[in-house]
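WARN retry 2 of 3 for item q-0093 after timeout on previous attempt; input resubmitted unchanged.
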Amino acid sequence: MGAIHAANLRRHPDVTSLVIADVDRQRAQEVARRLDASAADSVDEAFTSGTEGVVIASNTATHAELIRQAARAGLPAFCEKPVAADLSEATRTVQEVQAAGATLQIGLMRRFDAGFLAGRARVRAGQLGRLHTIRSVGADPDPPPATYLSSSGGIFWDALIHDFDLLRWITGREVAEVYACGSDAGPPIFAELGELDTAMALLTMDDRTLAATTATRCNGAGYDVRMELCGDADTIAIGLDRHTPLTSVEPDAPSPPSDPVPGFLERFASAFEAEIDAFLQVARGDLENPCDGREAVEALRVAEACWRSQRERRPVPMTEIAGF
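OK item q-0093 returned
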């Protein structure tokens, strides 16, 4: 992700100087050379070389400390999700950012996707009437590498976190209770690592809207991210187009998709560009932060509740999960 964000920054007309930092200095030099940027000798140097803002796309375990380092340096920071590897550390980190009066935007890029933006606008305008049901699908065509799985935090934390964030962002409501389950019946690596390859969560919002979210690492048909929003006046779908890897067996159905997108980088390429553009505006003080640390922590709270529900096989009210 770091190279993707760096390329988007390099193309942006407001960015005049770009410094790449990585614990693997050779990797930093390679990316810098490709983008006509500079490579820092160390990560610490990137915070002290006249930098005006930082974009953090490192391993999850390093996010919290780098966010705190940026806050102490008074630098606006954009950080890939999640804020930290566990909820308590994420909460403490965001509290430190707030105490320092610093700026932190979290990379939950689906907020910047054209389809999700249009869906949210319709819901907020009341065009669907009373929202009663939400269904979302998140499916990767292949499992990620074992090294990633072991540090990702699990499917609720890593994959479904987007859905949990979108539910709050689109509806303007809070999650009241969750019930989640999961399976490791896919490739053996999941059971070996104690991870799930497929998961589902049923969420009750505080206005009693029901939401069902599903995710899998093993969708042979291709990469698929969709959401259906159902109201008593209308129902809409997000992510349903000619690329959607979904085949109807009805006799008069349209032809199956011939060109599904390979993965999230392609599916959300424009959203990644838009969130970086937004961050630059936030850093200049020209835009209200569209996804601050508190918003990201609220999504993590839902993920934590789902993990607890799946492990303990019971509904979990959000009042059990500590927050701000």
